[in-house]
Design goal:
Blueprint: E1 12-21, E2 32-36, E3 42-44, E4 52-56, E5 62-70, E6 73-78, E7 86-91, E8 96-102, E9 131-135, H1 143-154, E10 163-169, E11 172-177, E12 190-193, E13 199-205, E14 208-216, E15 226-230, E16 234-239, E17 246-256, E18 262-268, E19 273-274, E20 277-278, E21 293-299, E22 316-321, E23 325-337, E24 346-358
Parallel strand pairs: 1-24, 2-4, 8-9
Antiparallel strand pairs: 1-16, 3-14, 4-5, 5-14, 6-11, 6-13, 7-8, 7-12, 10-11, 15-17, 17-23, 18-22, 18-24, 19-20, 21-23
Keywords: Signal
């Protein structure tokens, strides 16, 4: 694939070349079971453990076990500005965590609370904790910004709630029950307090517990078909300026028939560079105009990177789904800024590699 040529009017510009790779499908791990018989075809939700199942028929056909599970999904929508005093209880079926939404100082988000909110909030509990702050202070009280703060709080490691944020769109946070700590099943969410009547909850629904589907013959070797595409093969961020953040986007589309869904990862071949000079990776979650920083953020139902994040030479999961999907899109936005006293002249570039795999 040829890198794109770009002429820059001044002295600092950025370009990237994008690639796809297709690693081999992963395999399940766990115990092995051998069953003899003339025919075999079974779906049994009672099996909750194990990994590989082998069935042998009288013509020496074999089958493998494929994990079949559908996670419940739900959402939280902010319909107006938040001024504090709201409380939401979210459960994964095993654990429940109360999220206190308040208008504090803008610096206490996603921290453990040692009591029932208030101003200032009583912080200090040791994770995992059952009360988490969602701070919309510091100008974060609009629906979209409040949703981003709630997503950050739910995604924090301060609690053991088995609920993942799949995406944030406008004022809505889309959630999914996950098996790592939860039950995948249907769970209602509860508004304990909504002083402004500006929060709408859709409880977890549409899920089931995992079972194993056993398939024989040639189809047993098939983990599922996956199809992927990028709408661009290269991106130019253009001329960087200390006055604003330069951005460029690419949209990845994924279709898979695999019952376990897919994972989309991304890595680079090294820092964004021009000869011996490079642009610093973002480290504080936000690429800011006037600072030398570079990173990316994702958007879409399956997106998992919700704040500006550095690109590294190791695979980083940027989108994921645990059920089949058709044409699901994830937008990846690359973001760069410079420090006029620090960033050196040059044309900066590097290569980005996307990988897509069927989940084991």
């Amino acid at each position: 694939m040829k890198a794109m040529k770009k002429h820059c009017a001044r002295v600092i510009c950025v370009m990237m070349t994008l690639f796809w790779v297709f690693p081999a499908n992963g395999t399940m791990t766990g115990g092995a079971y051998e069953i003899s018989g003339d025919t075999f075809s079974v779906i049994d939700g009672a099996f909750q453990t194990g990994g590989n199942y082998q069935l042998t028929g009288n013509i020496e056909q074999t089958a493998v076990g494929t994990k079949v599970s559908i996670p419940a999904t739900g959402s939280v929508t902010f319909t107006g500005d938040i001024f504090g005093g709201e409380e939401i209880l979210i459960s994964d079926g095993l654990h429940s965590v109360k999220f206190f939404i308040n208008n504090w100082a803008g610096s206490l988000n996603a921290q453990c609370l040692s009591g029932a909110g208030g101003f200032p909030p009583p912080v200090g509990d040791t994770p995992p904790c059952d009360n988490i702050s969602v701070d919309v202070g510091g100008g974060n009280n609009t629906p979209a910004l409040a949703a981003a703060r709630l997503a950050e709080s739910i995604s924090s490691s301060n609690h053991n709630l088995g609920v993942a944020v799949t995406s944030v769109a406008g004022g809505t946070v889309y959630l999914q029950n996950v098996i790592s700590a939860g039950t995948l099943g249907n769970v209602a969410m509860t508004e304990i307090g909504d002083s402004g009547d500006v929060i709408t909850l859709v409880g977890m629904s549409g899920g089931n517990n995992p079972g194993y589907e056993l398939r024989g013959g040639f189809q047993a070797m098939e983990q599922g078909i996956i199809g992927v595409s990028l709408n661009e093969s290269s991106i130019a961020l253009g001329e960087l300026s200390a006055a604003s953040v330069a951005t460029g986007t690419v949209v990845a589309s994924v279709t898979t028939t695999a019952p376990t869904g897919y994972s989309l990862t991304m890595q680079d071949d090294g820092n964004l560079r021009s000869g011996a000079n490079d642009i610093n990776d973002v480290t504080d979650g936000s690429v800011t105009a006037g600072s030398e920083e570079y990173g990316f953020i994702t958007a879409g139902q399956d997106a998992v990177i919700l704040s500006d994040t550095a690109i590294t030479t190791s695979d980083r999961t940027i989108a994921k789904r645990t059920i089949p999907t058709s044409g699901i899109q994830t937008t990846i936005q690359f973001r760069a800024s410079l420090d006029s006293t620090q960033t050196k002249q040059g044309t900066y570039s590097h290569a980005i590699v996307f990988s897509s795999t069927v989940n084991p």
